[in-house]
């Protein structure tokens, strides 16, 4: 039985980690750490966990040793925090943005502050089993990519060699990506029904996509009406016809447990839509070809395959368990 | 030309007052007063007013004299504020809860604090032209009822004498009623898609309904997925058959410019639904009879007929203008 | 291993039955029967089942014997269908409205047609384990109540003896209750954001509530913005204080695996909200007391505890398996 | 007083035309023609027009002469219909797709059928006053562009000469663009919360954009959760810096009554969002620059500036009235 603890356990990613770990037959939860709510019941913050657990949040300084430690803590703060807690666990799986970009100058360009733990930057293995399964099996430091980055990476990876280097990514996201802290912009009356282009250019996840795919990726990001869910539509140029493209996707993902190819000719569900994926660990990928333009599409639940689910998948790989353990929920239709 | 100013102009009711007044041919706006944003452009807070006005928010201590002053300021604070600004205008139209209940003990029961301007309490005329048109025509102090109260009062008024004294009101509301200040509960990810019974018993608007209708009203209130819109479903018991009930509604509202009777036998739009009423000053009322049980239904836009629109309607009555001036927008379908 | 088949498998309840049965360790699916789509893959209609199954829909005349047969077929048609397929399975669990009301005159009053299989009417055991666990353990014919009826029955049952006989129920529901067939009224542009009182009086589920609780129940039903989810707010009158009421709920539901008491003093999640319950088999129940008025509230996912989940729970009880098998999904937050 | 009639008056665009014309001080409505509902009251189909009009739908063969005839009739059917009704009015303003593309081979490529009224194709003036004001002032045949085309054309027009010829357009749309006829894909339970890429490549509006801007436009279109509203995000490449781009927009739109430049540095409303524009005739345009990449954004209400509002604006231009007459509604916030 693996003992796993969660820092940042009161946030949305933290809550999703707790949900998945509580349903995981090979894991027992050590601690759920929260700076805001130490001493409070976990289910008072995550009401979907009522009757699932009597767990109470621990304060950060109460953290004790465990096998796997998840840090679902804020960007910019995690680079200070992580070196301090690293010795508490054999494996640390970080869900923040702080260890995703190995080049500190790139980090600074996208996060606006210098990195303060540069010595760790190139030790982390990206939490994408589809690309780094072997490395993850022995990694002690794992960094789960951003939700839109994971979607775009899985959409684009099969196109390497088939299209030119420039890709334009249009990402759309629900509101849960902004986290559980209230601000004027995510007030319901303001955010409901919005199509808010919050990053017209240079969304920071583009840097991760470029690094993990080799493409020169540009990303625009828009908040649309949804709580969960991310979709990316990626535009590239190349000579490959539809058959070639389909073959490339099949070769990459034919054996993957959590990537489905969704590229049908007709029907309301012919291409990836995150609406189907709430709570599930699938990333659906699809594509369409029009002459020399190739559109690649991916969808996932930002809190699951785009965060907590990918992290648990990494735990499974790292600890030698079945990769799908605890991740069997298929999603709901309709929802 | 009537000169009207708005206090609390940065809130949602304040913004709606400004929208209506900017489109009103008989009014010019004096000042838009805000404690939070003095010196900022009004359209930086109310982006739907871009290209409508170059108005800038004034600080409260910059308030100068005007003909009509609207106070769209918070409950509990307004009872202190209003006596101080009363002399700034010939007529004050208050949209807060502080002058709706003439009995200070009732106020204290529902608002949790003692009233500090009790001498004014029974001077205010309720801002319901359908009930108090003559009084409003000469009123210097007007108090617009709560949005759910207005809906329930208009739904129930025709039933006086036809049903027994006890009425149970089930009110549903969108999120804009909570105002423009962010809090954990109205974060989009929390509030979206919710059915949140925030007042299982004793919603404070029930006291206004009892006062204005003579019924003994009990009100439950639930937040449902919507930004604008209030609907009340009122349950009463009596002997009246459907024809009698319909006649009563016709007698009350046949000549009313802003109350429509919506009680059809079939169709998706057979009964009042606030979805049709966003931006409009209508209150739609309807009913159904089943033996001795009578269900009365009303819907309105909480920010218009449930607030700013009713206030402008009162201004029209008070200043002797056509009652519908500036209030002609009929609502959108579909939306 | 229990062999279970589903008739009406292309509908929303049918799809949810398939999802639950595919994840059930003690069941194998025999056939998924559909009159509309025989020969088509199940996942072309229920896209959340992609990669879960290669099952293909069977035509009704291809139905073969199984252990448990679920009929998720339309009201009025099922009373003709069921007698014909009854011999195909040891146990038939019906999710239609046709065998919920033992009195044929009540059926005719609420469904508008005479019942044509009256000889079966009083053989069916209601699919509410919380009330009929012992009978269900040996029942060959089981009828799952309507979604709003189950919610109201579970909300009201503990109040028997504590309040008077008259209860008024305000039910709210998402759009999936209307089924998977398109009509003008459930077009997205019409239904989105609506508060549609589709049954101002005499919703047919009230007859089930009266029968199963002994109360004289009246039900109003409103469609609100949601796909899944039902909430009922029930108004009753009595002398019991809050402590007595809480004790009654605890006595009834202390040992129930799928009923949670949610009645807190504060917080956005203080009372039952179906938003938390999508995909889960919980029915959350809560209450509030104001003098002699008692408000009881319940929430559930209409397709799970209000339909397919309750049916699987009944299968578990009937076949002597653990009652919670295959029903472990706790729901998502936020969603 | 201009006498205007509407064919296709029972559709969503038809309803919006009626709403705008009823509020237009210089127009009286002649007939509202519907094939589906002749003889029925207009407000039974467009419930927001209750108390606005007693108009009844006419059958198509009852059409009599008027000054301006709007054809809000289906694609592919209108090319047959229009030549037959052309003589009924001095000016015909068509809202269908049939007369937007002057080259019949392009029409056939995008609409899948040969054009049957090719002699009319190059007589129509595009209904974009911002580009064709002088021509519209004397046009007898006007063709209003597609909603996404209008948005993209207004977003891109100022960039001509500043960026290269290739533009990639990512369009997002609400559900009302699919019209008022129910189908499986626009059932609420299916469409709600969706991110549905219904045109991954080659959305037909791209042909209009290419024609009206001179760019080589490619368009992807996605249905997102909204009833009204279209947003386009256009990607282009060029050397212009932000100041140059801003100047170009100002030069084009400084005097335009219905185009606002929304390109701020911060805030939830810094870029165009259709959420603010429901019911209004504004097209908001904005942009951002990142090195050699330029992102242009536009938002509008597909039924107003993307259809009925643009058509009324054309009527105003054509009949020599003030261009803004009847189009004063500014939109709502919050909504």
UniProtKB/TrEMBL annotation, chains A, B, C, D:
Active-site residues?
147
Known pathway: Amino-acid biosynthesis; L-arginine biosynthesis; N(2)-acetyl-L-ornithine from L-glutamate: step 3/4
Q: Where, per UniProt, does this protein localize?
A: Cytoplasm
Q: What is its main location?
A: cytoplasm
Q: What domain of life is recorded for the organism?
A: Bacteria
The record's keywords, sorted A to Z, are: Amino-acid biosynthesis, Arginine biosynthesis, Cytoplasm, NADP, Oxidoreductase
Q: What does this protein do?
A: Catalyzes the NADPH-dependent reduction of N-acetyl-5-glutamyl phosphate to yield N-acetyl-L-glutamate 5-semialdehyde.
The protein's matches in PANTHER family, at most eight in alphabetical order, are given as: [LYSW]-L-2-AMINOADIPATE_[LYSW]-L-GLUTAMATE PHOSPHATE REDUCTASE-RELATED, N-ACETYL-GAMMA-GLUTAMYL-PHOSPHATE REDUCTASE, CHLOROPLASTIC-RELATED-RELATED
- Name used for this protein in its record: N-acetyl-gamma-glutamyl-phosphate reductase
Gene label: argC
């Amino acid at each position: 039985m693996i003992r796993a603890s969660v820092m940042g356990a009161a946030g949305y990613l933290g809550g999703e980690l707790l949900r998945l770990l509580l349903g995981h037959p090979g894991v027992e939860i050590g601690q759920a750490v929260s700076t805001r709510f130490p001493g409070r019941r976990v289910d008072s913050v995550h009401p979907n966990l009522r009757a699932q657990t009597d767990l109470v949040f621990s304060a950060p300084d109460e953290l004790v040793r465990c096998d796997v430690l998840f840090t679902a803590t804020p960007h910019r703060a995690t680079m200070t925090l992580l070196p301090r807690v690293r010795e508490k666990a054999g494996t640390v799986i970080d869900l923040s943005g702080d260890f995703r970009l190995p080049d500190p100058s790139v980090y600074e360009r996208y996060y606006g502050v210098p990195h303060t733990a540069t010595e760790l930057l190139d030790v982390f293995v990206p939490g994408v089993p589809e690309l780094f399964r072997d490395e993850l099996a022995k990694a002690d430091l794992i960094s789960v990519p951003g939700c839109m980055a994971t979607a775009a990476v899985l959409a684009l990876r099969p196109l390497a060699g088939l299209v030119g280097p420039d890709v334009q990514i249009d990402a759309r996201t629900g509101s849960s990506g902004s986290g559980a802290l209230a601000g004027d912009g995510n007030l319901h009356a303001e955010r409901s029904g919005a199509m808010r282009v919050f990053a017209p250019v240079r969304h920071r996840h583009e840097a991760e996509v470029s690094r993990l795919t080799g493409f020169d990726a540009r990303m625009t990001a828009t908040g649309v009406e949804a709580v969960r869910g991310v979709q990316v539509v990626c535009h590239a140029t190349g000579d490959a016809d539809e058959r070639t493209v389909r073959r490339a996707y099949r070769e990459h993902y034919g054996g993957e447990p959590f990537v489905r190819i969704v590229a049908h000719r007709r029907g309301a569900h012919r291409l990836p839509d995150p609406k189907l994926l709430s709570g599930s660990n699938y990333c659906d990928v699809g594509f369409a070809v029009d002459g020399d333009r190739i559109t690649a599409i991916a969808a996932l639940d930002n809190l699951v395959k785009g965060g907590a689910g990918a992290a648990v998948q990494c735990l499974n790989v790292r600890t030698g368990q079945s990769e799908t353990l605890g991740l069997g929920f298929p999603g709901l239709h309709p929802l």
